[in-house]
Give the backbone structure.
Amino acid sequence: MRSRVWGGTAAVVLGGLLAAGCGGGGKDTQDEGAGKAGSGGFPATVTDCMGARTTFSGPAEKIVTSNASSLELLLRLGAGDKVIGTGFPPGKGTMPGALDAQASKVEVLSKNVIPKEKLLGSGADLYIDTFASMNMGGGMGDAPTPEEFKAAGIKHIYLKSTACAAQRKSPVTDLAAVEADITSLGAVTGTSAKAAELVTGMKKKVDAVRKAVGGIPENKRPTYFFFDYDAGTKQPSVVCNRQVANAVITLAGARNVFAGCDGDFKQVGWEDVIAKNPDWIQLGVRDRGGEAANEKAFDEAEKWLKSNPATKGLKAVKKGHFLRIGSERTTIAGVQNADAVEQIAKTLHPGKVGTS
C-alpha cells in the first residue's frame, strides 16, 4: 500500500502514512471540543488516533500546518491570520477563489516535510498534522517526539480523517470524520461558529444527494473507477475503501470498483482494472493552477485511456463516460468533498439531483 500527501500539484509517496478517516464509516468518537461548537467555549479537548487527549484553555494563536489540506481548512474557517507557516505548500492558483491569495502569504517552512529543528523553532503554539507521524514507517524523516513538542510549547494534533487509517475497523462510506475534523479545528481556533456553518453546508449537499439516489439498489448503481493519472500510468494506483474517495463515490450513488481492498491506495495491474470494466471513469488529475492547464491535463488523461491497448476497450472508454473532477476534491479530506459528491451524482444520475 502506498499513500500520498498533496501540496499544490505535487504528490509525495509516504509509505502508508496518509489515508482516510478514523472510526467505522462515520461512527467516529467525537472530540470534546466538537461538542462546544455552538458556543466556541474553552477548555476544548481533542484526541489523536490512539485516544491521547490534548486540551486547549484558549484558542491557538500561532499555527503551523503540515500541508495544504490543513492549511485550506484553516483558511476556510477564517483562521488564516493565525497560520505562521506550512509544509507542502499549495501551488499558485490551486486553492479556490480568495483562498489562493491568502495561502500565498503563509510562510513556506518546507516544500516537503518540515525539518524537525525548523518546526520546533518556529514559535508555533500548535502544529496540525495531516500525517500519521506516530506510525512513521521511515517515510517522514526525524519527527519531533511528544517530549520535544512539549518542551517547545507546541501542541500537536492530527487531522484524524486523514491520519488515522491504520486504526480504522471498517470502510469509510460517509464524510463524518471530515466534518468532525472541521468541528475540532473550529473549537481549538475559536472559530466554532464558522465550522458549524461549513459542516451544515456539507451536510445539506450530501443529504440532498442521499435523498435523491438512496433508493437505488446496490446492484443497480454504476461502477466507478478513479483513474489517478498523475500517479503514473505504468501501474495504476487505485483508491481503496479506507480512502475518503471511497466515501465520496459511495455517497454519490456509485460503486467504487476497488472497494474490496482494505487500505487507502493500492497499486494493481491494468488487468485488474480491465476485469472490473467500470461504467464510469474519473480522470483524476491534480490542479495545475488554472482552467486551461487543467483542461489540458484532463485531455491528456482521456487521450491516454483511449489510445492505450489495455484500456481502449473498457466500457466507460468506449462510451466516453469520463468525469473531469480534480483529484484534490475527491481524495483529500475537506469541504470540497461534498461538492464532488454532488457533481458525481449529477453526472451519473441526471435529473435526480438538483442544484444546491
In short: The CA atoms of residues 116 and 143 lie 6 Å apart. Residues 192-213 form the longest helix (22 residues). Residues 1-29, 33-39, 134-139 have pLDDT under 50 and may be disordered. Residues 4-203 form a domain with the Rossmann fold fold (CATH 3.40.50.1980).
